[in-house]
Amino acid sequence: AYLVVRIDEAARVLTFVSVPPQIMVSLSDGQVHPLSDARAVGGDAELIDQVEELLGVEIAHFARTDADGLARLVDLAGGVPVLVSEEVDDPRAGIQVIKAGEQVLDADQALTLLRASNFVDGLEAQAKNRAAFTVNLAGRATSGEGLSFPTVVSDGAATVSTDWTSSQIIALGDALRPLSEATVYACAAPGRLADGEGGQTYRIDGD
Question: pTM of the predicted model, to two decimals?
């Protein structure tokens, strides 16, 4: 899962664009691959270059984690509150069924929410869920409930690879606090899923 986030600290606005990993791109090895192969071919730099080209933006910073890292961050935050707009029941995403409404998600439920895609609006709903989870995780971490934000940053550092320093992350959290009052927009990169020889691919509009 890839999220590109624009942060306007002054206006307290966060804009999320979910980039499907099934987009086919030409990588530095001269072959066409799904975007999800970019790191294996050329590392983080390759992935960032490809996303910049796809979206026509310049990416200033990056952060990367995996399922275990996300689970650890959820545990550190003491769970993540999310307003679930549509019941989550996707066997491909996890065995948990998450009811619609206000929920405090544990690590397993959070991973199921982030993976689920069989919604009425498909990838758009998935993008909104991922944005809401990310903002609420950060909001929980910066709220002062339970562990202090610097402690969460310190304890979670081993689970996240990023070019941000701990002091920069803490300063950003302080600038955006409280995140519950920030304006958040979320969407998927405009396009459509299509069946290909190797399975489903995602075609950006205009391709």
Answer: 0.85
